[in-house]
């Protein structure tokens, strides 16, 4: 049976600095460029969350977008909005790249939504940088 999906857009603003203690200051600058600026910088992140539409919940109702909105607000927006991503415990051991952030957002959402409902998470970091993850490996 055909299965459509629906994508909702969310936003948060956050600061970060791309830096790893595994590299020298010179190599950090070479790898991360101006995103390695010691003072950090901010982005107006846009998160695009795609779910299967019309999913039946266990009590016979349909998964509603209000629930998705509440989940994203609680798990993602309130956690990151106006925060320094480098201070988030999830980034204690990894760099705050768009790749790592989109994986983290997927992990935060997938455990709070009905099984197999989450299809894809997209993350717009800058005008030219878009990251996405659709599960799997
Ligand atoms: Zn950046």
What does this structure look like?
The longest helix has 16 residues, at 65-80. The chain contains three helices and five strands. By secondary structure, the protein is of the alpha+beta class. Bound molecules: zinc ion (ZN). Zinc ion binds next to β2.
CATH architecture field: 2-Layer Sandwich
- The CATH C-level class name: Alpha Beta
Ligands in the model, by name, code or SMILES, are: zinc ion
**Overall outline:** elongated
* N-to-C order of helices and strands: EHEHEHEE
Uncertain spans, ≥5 residues at pLDDT below 50? none
Which secondary structure elements does this structure contain, and how are they paired or packed?
Blueprint: E1 5-16, H1 25-32, E2 41-52, H2 65-80, E3 83-84, H3 98-110, E4 118-124, E5 130-133
Parallel strand pairs: 1-3
Antiparallel strand pairs: 1-2, 2-4, 4-5
Bound molecules: zinc ion.
Zinc ion (ZN) is lined by residues 16, 35, 41, 43.
Question: What descriptive keywords fit this protein?
Answer:
137 residues, alpha+beta, Tetrahydropterin Synthase, Chain A, five-stranded mixed sheet, 27% helix, elongated, binds zinc ion
In short:
By secondary structure, the protein is α+β, with helices and mostly antiparallel strands. It contains three helices and five strands. Helices cover 27% and strands 27% of the residues.
